[in-house]
DNA sequence: TAATTTAAGGTTATCGGTAACATTATTTCA
DNA sequence: TGAAATAATGTTACCGATAACCTTAAATTA
């Protein structure tokens, strides 16, 4: 590997001069600058980021941790974060925790070991608390995305989950649905809790009774085993006429399970959910959804993070909480109750 | 930041002893080991990856560069790469080039500067050659995914693009289509070239004439400006009855443009493409596609990469080329010609 | 013209680890 | 019982960069 010393030797200058040329610091004559540049090109020199960061005590590296890299919500969010990072001159790397607290912890270790300047995290859930506290203890600035973690103060960008759930239920109710079920993510995830709350409030406002057996709390991540959903569907009696899904992955799994049992959507069952299905929902608009502004989650989150990084030292700045609105897109996955077979 | 020296001082041993405890090397008495461990926990010590890599001359870090993080093909591929990396004990980080050679070059610089042990790359295209050669020159092992780059020998995992294109055209032909158009990625991308070749061969085999105006070569990446597709549609006369899209993104854009012009799919135009739309195509199976084994691209690619890394030093090992089959999934986006309005 | 400034560059120490080579008790064995 | 082996730890140098300080010659200024 070519080092600064190889360049220095070949150019007949000291290593420090090479360093100055690389970083455009200090005073260097045009002649030496040109010579050093030529030697660097000749030898294909690439600065060693680690050596540099070691002495500078900063890496210019930021991380984005998401929980599901195959979910369009998170990948669109990633684009937003990426664009903002570029704007501020940071490099951004991605990690994927798969909704798995252990994997997430591994990434946090990598991040700490890499001495990243900051992190954007969509936490796997409340049990993420310990490793987020570790980040805090090591003074790594971070911003939470999409989910809060009780007991941890921080900047955060959230969607209006409660309002979103209310809108979905209201919409179903307006189509005459009175038996509305909810399949939700783990209660250890803040957004899932708020969606449940919004669901219950909306039921009440629409004079609908809350029936515990109509609620299934499972995992937001995709899984091959659908038996939990199957037994839930069997348990409910009478079957609901509509299902609210806590996110797009759950909606897909519910619909798949319904199809397996010969129940057609929306003819026999209406389904709505949080989060859109990416650009692909445009070709054959099917699911009625709360389309969260995924790109904005990433973009705004990155702005908050960069602010934190640049304010480092100043203490006691209040934590910022951005709540993005929940907009509903009505498509074909809901039919009016009177049309249900 | 807590260092090995802080631990050493507090535990009353030398830094080297701490290092030995961390890495489980050398001989350490149980007593000191326990003491050092306790101090590390007390101080929340995290090893500095950069310092370590600097002296070890290896980072245990691998990178995956993809060209479109919102494309389910690449995110599923990423999952495969991730699982395989974990199996082999490497850390994996992701980068997203957005089909943009410049961005890709930036990532390559980051990778070189980070001194990653290896890279998995889905190259943006033939113009990626210079920076891939830079990787080679710096002896960073890499494996290409999904696309080859002429003039560059390397391990590579490909899909059978030619065969896939043939299958799509054959399928359309079997439904009576005789005017079949192709919207494809840039001719500077190997997979796009092969898809065009397969398309032309299949036309010939089905006794269909090749009409240049029926082929549009554009970009594989999503874009907001659809005017190029619009003017292409206007140019073709008579309109084709079916369109083959070089990938899922193009299919989505074509269908969107068709809808804008009041042309319905599949009632008035059949559309097929390469690459599935992720799990979401299951809820409302619409597009007939060549479903490439995205997960396998990542998993096998990672295996090849790790082999290369571990063989480092041994020269002249032949390059490996894995070609994954192209399987067609027939869904609803094609109708028989006689039913076209 | 002597005293300062400035331009251009060099030296040394350091970032946080680890390899390689000591060192010192303590065992083990001939 | 003395020599050799081993266990447990310490010292030193180095990985590749940069900050802080130092040096020298040329250019300015009083």
What do these coordinates show?
Chain A has three domains: 4-47, lambda repressor-like DNA-binding domains (434 Repressor (Amino-terminal Domain)); 59-159 and 293-326, Response regulator (Rossmann fold, 3-Layer(aba) Sandwich), CATH 3.40.50; 161-291 and 328-339, 3-Layer(aba) Sandwich (Rossmann fold). Chain A has twelve helices and twelve strands. The first copy, chain A, has helices at residues 4-11, 15-23, 30-42, 49-56, 72-88, 101-114, 129-137, 161-174, 190-205, 227-235, 248-260, 294-310, and strands at residues 61-66, 91-96, 118-121, 142-145, 155-159, 180-184, 215-217, 242-245, 270-274, 288-291, 321-324, 327-329. In chain A, the strands form two sheets. Chain A has a six-stranded parallel sheet, sandwiched between helices. Chain A has a six-stranded mixed sheet with strand order 7-6-8-9-10-12, with helices on both faces. In chain A, strand 3, helix 7 and strand 4 (142-145) form a beta-alpha-beta unit. Chain A is elongated and about 85 Å long. The relative contact order of chain A is 0.13. Chains A and B meet through helix 4, helix 5, strand 2, helix 6 and helix 11 of A and helix 4, helix 5, strand 2, helix 6 and helix 11 of B. The first copy, chain A, binds a DNA duplex (30 and 30 nucleotides) through helix 2 and helix 4.
Q: Strands, helices and their partners?
A:
Two copies of one chain form a homodimer.
Chain A: H1 4-11, H2 15-23, H3 30-42, H4 49-56, E1 61-66, H5 72-88, E2 91-96, H6 101-114, E3 118-121, H7 129-137, E4 142-145, E5 155-159, H8 161-174, E6 180-184, H9 190-205, E7 215-217, H10 227-235, E8 242-245, H11 248-260, E9 270-274, E10 288-291, H12 294-310, E11 321-324, E12 327-329
Parallel strand pairs in A: 1-2, 1-3, 3-4, 4-5, 5-11, 6-7, 6-8, 8-9, 9-10
Antiparallel strand pairs in A: 10-12
Helix pairs in contact in A: 1-2, 1-3, 5-12, 8-9
The structure holds a DNA duplex (30 and 30 nucleotides).
